[in-house]
Design goal:
By secondary structure, the protein is mostly beta strands. The protein is built from two helices and 21 strands. The chain is globular. About 4% of the residues have low confidence.
Amino acid sequence: MQDTGFQFAYNEIETVPNRFEASDVVLSRDGHVMYVVFDNTYQIGAICTSLGRSFNCTDRLLDWPDLSLNKKKSGFEGMAYNPMSGTYFVVQEAIETNTKNLYKANVFEIIINPKDSTPIRLVESCLANWDFGSDNKGFEGLEFVFHRSSGQTYLLGLCEANKCDHKSASNNDGRIVVLEKKTATTKKPCSWEPVSTFDLPSSVYFNDYSAISIYHQESHELPTYVAVTSQENSQVWIGLIEELDQAPFFDLSSLDKSTIYDLPRTTETASDCQVKYCNIEGVAWRGKNQLILVSDRAKDDEDIHCIDKDQSVHYVVLPEHLTD
Protein backbone atom coordinates (compact mmCIF):
# COMPACT_ATOMS: atom_id res chain seq x y z
CA MET A 1 0.00 0.00 0.00
CA GLN A 2 1.28 3.46 -0.88
CA ASP A 3 1.00 6.16 1.76
CA THR A 4 1.28 9.87 2.35
CA GLY A 5 0.90 11.44 5.76
CA PHE A 6 1.09 14.54 7.88
CA GLN A 7 1.19 15.48 11.54
CA PHE A 8 -1.67 17.31 13.20
CA ALA A 9 -1.16 21.07 12.80
CA TYR A 10 -3.11 23.92 14.31
CA ASN A 11 -2.89 27.68 14.22
CA GLU A 12 -3.51 28.01 17.97
CA ILE A 13 -0.77 25.86 19.43
CA GLU A 14 -1.53 26.86 23.01
CA THR A 15 -4.98 25.23 22.85
CA VAL A 16 -3.64 21.85 21.70
CA PRO A 17 -3.41 18.93 24.17
CA ASN A 18 0.12 17.73 24.89
CA ARG A 19 -0.52 14.49 23.00
CA PHE A 20 -2.79 13.66 20.09
CA GLU A 21 -3.91 10.14 20.93
CA ALA A 22 -6.15 9.72 17.89
CA SER A 23 -8.65 6.86 18.03
CA ASP A 24 -11.00 7.24 15.04
CA VAL A 25 -11.81 9.43 12.05
CA VAL A 26 -14.86 10.33 9.96
CA LEU A 27 -14.64 12.24 6.67
CA SER A 28 -17.33 14.89 6.17
CA ARG A 29 -19.63 14.18 3.23
CA ASP A 30 -18.35 17.23 1.31
CA GLY A 31 -14.80 15.94 1.72
CA HIS A 32 -13.56 19.17 3.35
CA VAL A 33 -12.97 18.05 6.94
CA MET A 34 -11.83 14.96 8.82
CA TYR A 35 -13.33 14.76 12.29
CA VAL A 36 -10.92 12.98 14.63
CA VAL A 37 -11.66 11.75 18.15
CA PHE A 38 -8.96 11.22 20.76
CA ASP A 39 -8.99 8.99 23.82
CA ASN A 40 -7.14 11.53 25.98
CA THR A 41 -9.49 14.51 25.55
CA TYR A 42 -13.17 15.22 24.91
CA GLN A 43 -12.22 17.79 22.27
CA ILE A 44 -12.69 16.72 18.66
CA GLY A 45 -10.21 17.59 15.93
CA ALA A 46 -11.50 19.20 12.73
CA ILE A 47 -8.64 18.53 10.31
CA CYS A 48 -8.88 20.04 6.83
CA THR A 49 -8.29 17.97 3.72
CA SER A 50 -6.44 19.46 0.75
CA LEU A 51 -9.86 20.09 -0.82
CA GLY A 52 -11.03 21.85 2.32
CA ARG A 53 -7.93 24.05 2.42
CA SER A 54 -8.75 25.26 -1.08
CA PHE A 55 -12.02 26.56 0.44
CA ASN A 56 -10.14 28.37 3.27
CA CYS A 57 -10.74 25.62 5.82
CA THR A 58 -8.49 25.84 8.91
CA ASP A 59 -7.64 23.10 11.41
CA ARG A 60 -9.39 23.43 14.76
CA LEU A 61 -9.97 21.71 18.06
CA LEU A 62 -13.69 21.73 18.82
CA ASP A 63 -14.59 22.11 22.49
CA TRP A 64 -16.91 19.65 24.20
CA PRO A 65 -20.10 21.33 25.53
CA ASP A 66 -18.87 20.81 29.10
CA LEU A 67 -15.58 22.70 28.92
CA SER A 68 -14.35 21.13 32.16
CA LEU A 69 -13.95 17.82 30.29
CA ASN A 70 -11.64 19.15 27.57
CA LYS A 71 -8.47 18.24 29.45
CA LYS A 72 -9.76 14.93 30.82
CA LYS A 73 -9.41 11.48 29.28
CA SER A 74 -12.50 10.65 27.25
CA GLY A 75 -11.98 6.99 26.43
CA PHE A 76 -13.34 7.74 22.93
CA GLU A 77 -12.53 4.87 20.57
CA GLY A 78 -15.06 5.01 17.74
CA MET A 79 -17.00 7.55 15.70
CA ALA A 80 -19.78 7.23 13.11
CA TYR A 81 -21.96 9.56 11.04
CA ASN A 82 -25.73 9.29 10.60
CA PRO A 83 -26.51 10.75 7.15
CA MET A 84 -30.25 10.53 7.85
CA SER A 85 -30.16 12.98 10.76
CA GLY A 86 -26.81 14.69 10.19
CA THR A 87 -25.64 13.72 13.69
CA TYR A 88 -22.52 11.89 14.84
CA PHE A 89 -22.06 9.07 17.32
CA VAL A 90 -18.99 8.81 19.55
CA VAL A 91 -18.42 5.74 21.72
CA GLN A 92 -16.51 5.45 24.97
CA GLU A 93 -14.87 2.05 24.80
CA ALA A 94 -15.88 0.72 28.23
CA ILE A 95 -16.74 2.59 31.42
CA GLU A 96 -17.24 1.40 34.98
CA THR A 97 -20.64 0.23 36.21
CA ASN A 98 -21.96 -0.36 39.71
CA THR A 99 -20.88 -4.00 39.40
CA LYS A 100 -17.24 -4.85 40.08
CA ASN A 101 -15.25 -5.86 36.98
CA LEU A 102 -18.21 -5.16 34.72
CA TYR A 103 -17.92 -2.47 32.07
CA LYS A 104 -20.21 -1.10 29.36
CA ALA A 105 -19.64 1.20 26.41
CA ASN A 106 -21.34 4.59 26.35
CA VAL A 107 -22.56 6.28 23.17
CA PHE A 108 -22.87 10.05 22.74
CA GLU A 109 -24.99 11.41 19.92
CA ILE A 110 -23.78 14.89 18.96
CA ILE A 111 -24.27 17.66 16.42
CA ILE A 112 -21.07 19.16 14.98
CA ASN A 113 -21.05 22.64 13.46
CA PRO A 114 -17.53 24.15 13.46
CA LYS A 115 -18.94 27.60 12.57
CA ASP A 116 -21.21 27.69 15.63
CA SER A 117 -20.11 29.39 18.86
CA THR A 118 -20.85 26.01 20.46
CA PRO A 119 -19.35 23.72 17.79
CA ILE A 120 -20.42 20.48 19.51
CA ARG A 121 -23.93 20.06 20.90
CA LEU A 122 -24.92 16.99 22.89
CA VAL A 123 -28.15 15.31 21.76
CA GLU A 124 -28.12 12.29 24.07
CA SER A 125 -25.87 9.94 26.02
CA CYS A 126 -26.92 6.27 26.21
CA LEU A 127 -25.23 3.17 27.59
CA ALA A 128 -24.75 0.17 25.31
CA ASN A 129 -26.12 -2.83 27.17
CA TRP A 130 -23.26 -5.19 26.34
CA ASP A 131 -20.98 -6.49 29.09
CA PHE A 132 -17.19 -6.31 28.98
CA GLY A 133 -14.77 -7.72 31.53
CA SER A 134 -12.08 -5.09 30.97
CA ASP A 135 -12.07 -1.31 30.64
CA ASN A 136 -9.57 -1.38 27.76
CA LYS A 137 -11.03 -4.20 25.64
CA GLY A 138 -14.46 -2.89 24.70
CA PHE A 139 -15.87 -1.40 21.50
CA GLU A 140 -12.91 -0.19 19.47
CA GLY A 141 -14.80 0.79 16.32
CA LEU A 142 -18.27 2.10 15.47
CA GLU A 143 -20.42 2.36 12.35
CA PHE A 144 -23.95 3.49 11.52
CA VAL A 145 -25.96 1.36 9.11
CA PHE A 146 -29.44 1.49 7.57
CA HIS A 147 -31.33 -1.81 7.16
CA ARG A 148 -33.31 -1.08 4.02
CA SER A 149 -35.85 -3.93 4.07
CA SER A 150 -37.03 -3.12 7.62
CA GLY A 151 -36.35 0.62 7.65
CA GLN A 152 -34.47 0.18 10.94
CA THR A 153 -31.18 1.87 11.77
CA TYR A 154 -28.43 0.29 13.86
CA LEU A 155 -25.01 0.94 15.26
CA LEU A 156 -22.32 -1.68 14.71
CA GLY A 157 -19.88 -2.02 17.60
CA LEU A 158 -16.56 -3.63 16.66
CA CYS A 159 -15.05 -5.50 19.60
CA GLU A 160 -11.34 -5.01 20.12
CA ALA A 161 -10.81 -8.58 21.36
CA ASN A 162 -11.52 -11.80 19.54
CA LYS A 163 -14.92 -13.24 20.53
CA CYS A 164 -15.53 -9.89 22.34
CA ASP A 165 -13.66 -11.51 25.24
CA HIS A 166 -10.50 -9.90 26.64
CA LYS A 167 -9.34 -13.35 27.81
CA SER A 168 -9.67 -14.97 24.37
CA ALA A 169 -6.50 -16.55 22.96
CA SER A 170 -8.03 -16.85 19.48
CA ASN A 171 -6.82 -14.80 16.53
CA ASN A 172 -9.57 -15.34 13.95
CA ASP A 173 -12.80 -14.65 15.80
CA GLY A 174 -13.46 -10.98 15.08
CA ARG A 175 -16.96 -10.02 16.17
CA ILE A 176 -19.39 -7.14 15.64
CA VAL A 177 -22.38 -6.38 17.88
CA VAL A 178 -25.57 -5.02 16.26
CA LEU A 179 -27.08 -2.35 18.52
CA GLU A 180 -30.62 -0.96 18.34
CA LYS A 181 -31.62 2.31 20.00
CA LYS A 182 -34.21 2.20 22.78
CA THR A 183 -35.60 5.61 23.63
CA ALA A 184 -35.87 6.82 27.20
CA THR A 185 -39.09 6.36 29.16
CA THR A 186 -40.27 7.70 32.50
CA LYS A 187 -38.86 4.54 34.10
CA LYS A 188 -35.75 3.80 32.03
CA PRO A 189 -32.99 5.88 30.45
CA CYS A 190 -32.16 5.50 26.77
CA SER A 191 -29.94 2.59 25.79
CA TRP A 192 -28.42 0.74 22.87
CA GLU A 193 -29.58 -2.86 23.06
CA PRO A 194 -27.76 -5.75 21.35
CA VAL A 195 -30.05 -7.57 18.91
CA SER A 196 -27.47 -9.86 17.29
CA THR A 197 -23.80 -10.42 16.55
CA PHE A 198 -21.97 -11.44 13.40
CA ASP A 199 -18.36 -12.43 12.76
CA LEU A 200 -15.58 -11.52 10.41
CA PRO A 201 -14.62 -14.36 8.06
CA SER A 202 -12.50 -16.97 9.86
CA SER A 203 -9.80 -16.39 7.23
CA VAL A 204 -9.08 -13.00 8.86
CA TYR A 205 -6.33 -13.70 11.39
CA PHE A 206 -6.03 -10.59 13.55
CA ASN A 207 -4.79 -10.37 17.13
CA ASP A 208 -7.00 -7.34 17.69
CA TYR A 209 -9.46 -5.10 15.83
CA SER A 210 -9.01 -1.34 15.99
CA ALA A 211 -11.47 0.32 13.57
CA ILE A 212 -14.24 -0.23 11.04
CA SER A 213 -15.54 1.88 8.15
CA ILE A 214 -18.26 1.18 5.60
CA TYR A 215 -17.89 2.69 2.13
CA HIS A 216 -20.58 5.34 1.73
CA GLN A 217 -23.07 5.06 -1.12
CA GLU A 218 -25.70 7.74 -1.69
CA SER A 219 -28.48 5.15 -1.78
CA HIS A 220 -27.34 3.60 1.55
CA GLU A 221 -27.76 0.23 -0.18
CA LEU A 222 -25.88 -2.91 0.73
CA PRO A 223 -23.76 -4.79 -0.21
CA THR A 224 -20.86 -2.38 -0.16
CA TYR A 225 -17.21 -2.41 0.84
CA VAL A 226 -16.06 -2.44 4.45
CA ALA A 227 -12.60 -1.89 5.94
CA VAL A 228 -11.43 -3.31 9.29
CA THR A 229 -7.99 -2.56 10.73
CA SER A 230 -5.77 -4.32 13.23
CA GLN A 231 -3.34 -2.30 15.32
CA GLU A 232 -1.24 -5.25 16.47
CA ASN A 233 -0.96 -6.78 12.99
CA SER A 234 -0.62 -3.42 11.21
CA GLN A 235 -2.99 -4.67 8.53
CA VAL A 236 -6.33 -3.81 6.96
CA TRP A 237 -8.98 -6.23 5.70
CA ILE A 238 -11.26 -5.18 2.84
CA GLY A 239 -14.48 -7.14 2.44
CA LEU A 240 -18.18 -6.80 1.73
CA ILE A 241 -21.05 -6.16 4.12
CA GLU A 242 -24.52 -7.24 3.04
CA GLU A 243 -28.02 -7.08 4.48
CA LEU A 244 -29.97 -10.13 5.70
CA ASP A 245 -33.73 -10.28 6.24
CA GLN A 246 -33.41 -11.98 9.63
CA ALA A 247 -31.01 -11.85 12.57
CA PRO A 248 -28.12 -11.16 12.63
CA PHE A 249 -29.39 -8.74 9.89
CA PHE A 250 -25.90 -8.27 8.40
CA ASP A 251 -23.08 -10.48 7.18
CA LEU A 252 -19.47 -10.01 6.13
CA SER A 253 -17.74 -11.84 3.32
CA SER A 254 -14.34 -11.77 1.67
CA LEU A 255 -13.76 -10.64 -1.89
CA ASP A 256 -12.68 -13.17 -4.50
CA LYS A 257 -9.04 -12.12 -4.20
CA SER A 258 -6.80 -11.81 -1.16
CA THR A 259 -7.88 -8.69 0.70
CA ILE A 260 -5.72 -8.53 3.82
CA TYR A 261 -3.16 -5.83 3.16
CA ASP A 262 -0.02 -5.05 5.12
CA LEU A 263 0.33 -1.37 5.90
CA PRO A 264 3.64 -0.07 4.46
CA ARG A 265 6.72 -1.57 6.14
CA THR A 266 10.22 -0.18 6.58
CA THR A 267 12.45 -0.76 3.56
CA GLU A 268 16.01 -0.19 4.79
CA THR A 269 16.97 -3.72 3.75
CA ALA A 270 15.02 -6.51 2.11
CA SER A 271 15.83 -8.85 4.99
CA ASP A 272 14.80 -6.36 7.68
CA CYS A 273 11.22 -5.45 6.82
CA GLN A 274 9.60 -4.07 9.98
CA VAL A 275 6.24 -2.66 11.01
CA LYS A 276 6.17 1.14 11.14
CA TYR A 277 2.41 1.77 11.41
CA CYS A 278 2.21 0.32 14.91
CA ASN A 279 -0.71 2.29 16.36
CA ILE A 280 -3.49 2.51 13.76
CA GLU A 281 -6.74 3.22 15.62
CA GLY A 282 -9.11 4.73 13.06
CA VAL A 283 -10.11 4.29 9.42
CA ALA A 284 -12.38 6.08 6.93
CA TRP A 285 -12.91 5.72 3.19
CA ARG A 286 -11.61 8.50 0.94
CA GLY A 287 -13.05 7.41 -2.37
CA LYS A 288 -13.35 3.78 -3.39
CA ASN A 289 -9.63 3.03 -3.50
CA GLN A 290 -8.16 5.23 -0.78
CA LEU A 291 -8.34 5.11 3.00
CA ILE A 292 -7.68 7.65 5.73
CA LEU A 293 -6.00 6.22 8.83
CA VAL A 294 -5.27 7.86 12.18
CA SER A 295 -2.72 6.67 14.70
CA ASP A 296 -2.52 6.70 18.48
CA ARG A 297 0.52 7.61 20.58
CA ALA A 298 3.37 5.10 20.36
CA LYS A 299 4.07 3.06 23.47
CA ASP A 300 7.25 3.76 25.39
CA ASP A 301 8.78 0.38 24.52
CA GLU A 302 8.04 0.53 20.78
CA ASP A 303 10.60 0.93 18.00
CA ILE A 304 11.65 4.33 16.65
CA HIS A 305 9.80 3.51 13.41
CA CYS A 306 6.56 3.44 15.41
CA ILE A 307 7.22 6.85 16.95
CA ASP A 308 7.76 8.35 13.50
CA LYS A 309 4.22 7.42 12.44
CA ASP A 310 2.28 7.94 15.67
CA GLN A 311 -0.32 10.66 16.35
CA SER A 312 -0.80 11.36 12.65
CA VAL A 313 -3.27 11.24 9.79
CA HIS A 314 -2.28 8.97 6.90
CA TYR A 315 -3.65 8.58 3.38
CA VAL A 316 -3.16 5.12 1.88
CA VAL A 317 -3.94 3.86 -1.61
CA LEU A 318 -5.17 0.31 -2.09
CA PRO A 319 -2.91 -1.68 -4.44
CA GLU A 320 -5.86 -3.20 -6.32
CA HIS A 321 -8.72 -1.25 -7.87
CA LEU A 322 -12.13 -1.95 -6.34
CA THR A 323 -15.00 -2.02 -8.82
CA ASP A 324 -18.73 -1.34 -8.58
